[in-house]
Write a structure and sequence with these properties.
Oligomer: single chain
Distance between the termini: 31 Å
Structural class: mainly alpha
Strand content: under 5%
Helix content: over 70%
Number of helices: 14
Number of strands: 0
Radius of gyration: 19 Å
Length: 268
């Protein structure tokens, strides 16, 4: 009954309308428009590749390092885009919430769908790079959809927590912005995980769902030399720890959102 309600014809139509509106508003007044969905991660990739690969010589021992770096940037950007857009989504739709009765959660989901579309476009670029560089994805590449689902679940949980808290506390936005900067450098995106020589710290870093997902994706698609959480701990079952954290964050997000959703209209 719950699934039927969530995917009802009315909710699907509303979700579609919100996603289309989000895209139009985001690129309104831009000369390149939707092309920025592809250009932004590519430009970031070029800058980071020149700085870290050519000047700091990071990744020189990693096969197909350009793809290695690009894939990490694309997956991180998906998480960053989804959480940052969702953070202010409820407040941005305050007029809509006050005027008509709609499921509050659908506003957050619409932001996540926009980020998913951009992810799909960016993964096409990654695929082009794979062909150009002659990389040979392993059989484990069939697990990429599962890895992407894990990132989505984690990002959705964080998005629900942030969007709910932001209704009452506007300080959440700058705090999250700073936190994202710190998390970006703590996650092995610009550098290989093996550059961390302290084994204990290395194991702690890879417990992060984002670090684990990025490493697993690289291992499957770019090079099997990528250190995964299973190899870091010498225990395949350790993959379940970041996965459990994803579902824990999602559960907390749902509970917090459900508790506060009825007060959104009066707090906006």
């Amino acid at each position: 009954m719950l699934v039927k309600k969530i995917f009802s014809k009315r909710n699907r139509a509303l979700l579609r309308e919100l996603v289309v509106t989000d895209f139009k508003l985001r690129y309104q007044g831009s000369l390149l428009g939707y092309a920025w969905s592809l250009l932004r991660p590519l430009m970031l990739f070029i800058i980071l590749y020149v700085v870290f690969a050519h000047f700091f010589k990071l990744g020189k021992d990693i096969p197909h390092f350009p793809i290695y770096l690009l894939l990490g940037i694309v997956l991180w950007n998906f998480f960053a885009e989804m959480t940052s857009q969702s953070l202010s989504s409820i407040v941005a739709r305050g007029d809509l919430i006050r005027k008509i009765r709609i499921p509050r959660w659908i506003i957050v989901i619409s932001s996540s769908v926009s980020a998913l579309i951009n992810l799909g476009l960016n993964l096409i670029i990654v695929a082009v790079f794979i062909v150009i560089n002659g990389a040979d994805p392993s059989r484990a590449a069939i697990w990429l959809p599962v890895i992407l689902l894990e990132i989505y679940i984690f990002a959705l949980g964080v998005s629900l927590l942030l969007s709910t808290a932001y209704v009452k506390y506007r300080d959440v936005a700058p705090i999250w912005e700073v936190a994202m900067q710190g998390l970006f450098y703590l996650t092995p995106i610009l550098y290989p995980l093996t550059i961390i020589t302290n084994t204990t710290l290395q194991k702690l870093v890879v417990l992060s769902p984002m670090a684990q997902a990025i490493q697993d994706a690289r291992n499957a698609i770019v090079t099997p030399q990528t250190l995964t959480i299973a190899e870091a701990y010498h225990a395949p079952f350790m993959r379940l720890v970041p996965l459990a954290l994803c579902f824990l964050v999602l559960t907390l997000g749902i509970l917090y959102f459900k508790k506060e959703a009825k007060y959104f209209a009066e707090n906006l």
